[in-house]
Specification:
- The structure is a single chain.
- The chain has one domain.
- It has 7 helices and 7 strands.
- Strands 1, 2, 3, 4, 5, 6 and 7 form a 7-stranded antiparallel β-sheet that branches.
- The chain is of the alpha+beta class.
Length: 201
């Protein structure tokens, strides 16, 4: 618990000191630009309290600032908050122009089979701000490579950890999760939660 508290405080400090400005040079060159809440995803834990509030405030503020800048371009653009749940640290604000618009609008994520609404009331005082957005539910997918499935037992911390991982991998393959071939290797994608795509109404 103490480790998670320390990590939460660290991320809050980084959010306070982050550069939220829209890099138009990067946008014009690459045709997209994004701001990530936290680029290190090595640890997952329940986001709550002050960290949860800060993440949402940062996403909304960044979105609104970028919208002001993008409106000045007088051209079509894509702009959205990608709000991950429960993996909130992966949340982003993403914008795109020109040929990249189609990808972000249509191909970036799998559509959720069950349609539902984001329950904004769970976010307290910030619910009023979140209600200003339309939220479209998508699937948050994580991936694992074939070589990870083939790791020998001695590479794990314990036999218990090895058995747990193997049980998960077997279940993933048996359930026929989405798989692709890349560079002669199979990569499996499996659902980790939801992504809510937010755009100002």
């Amino acid at each position: 618990m103490k480790k998670k508290t320390i990590l939460s405080k660290k991320i809050i400090r980084e959010l306070k000191n982050s550069d939220f400005s829209l890099n138009l040079e990067h946008l014009n060159r690459k045709k997209y630009f994004n701001y990530k809440v936290e680029e290190w995803y090595g640890e997952e834990f329940l986001i709550k309290g002050e960290l949860k509030k800060r993440i949402i405030e940062t996403l909304i503020r960044t979105y609104l600032d970028w919208k002001t800048e993008l409106d000045k371009l007088n051209k079509e653009y894509y702009l959205a908050i990608w709000f991950y749940n429960p993996r909130m640290l992966k949340s982003e604000v993403v914008c795109a122009i020109d040929e990249k618009i189609h990808y972000y609008e249509n191909d970036a994520f799998l559509s959720a089979k069950k349609k539902s609404k984001l329950e904004v009331n769970q976010f307290g005082k910030l619910s009023t701000e979140l209600e200003k957005f339309n939220w479209d539910k998508r699937v948050d997918m994580d991936s694992i490579h074939q070589w990870e499935l083939d790791l020998p037992k001695q590479n794990y911390e314990s036999e218990k950890q090895y058995n747990k991982e193997q049980k998960f991998y077997k279940k993933m393959i048996d359930l026929n999760f989405h798989a692709v071939e890349k560079d002669n290797e199979k990569i499996y994608f499996y659902p980790k939660g939801d992504i809510w795509i937010g755009k100002l109404k």
